[in-house]
Amino acid sequence: MTTTATTASPPATTAPQRHSGVRRPSLLRLTGVELRKLVDTRAGLWLLITIGLLAAALVVVQLIWSDDAAQTFPNFFLPSMLPIGLLLPVLGILSITGEWSQRTALTTFALVPRRGRVIVAKLTAMVLAALASVLVSLGVAAAGTLVAAATGGAGTWRMEWALVLHAVVLQVANVLMGAGFGLLLLNTPLAIVGYLLLPTVWSILGEMIRPLRGPAGWLDTGRTMEPLLTPDVTAGQWGRFAVSLLVWLAVPLVAGLVRTLRREVS
Question: Which DSSP category does 201 fall into?
Answer without folding.
Answer: H
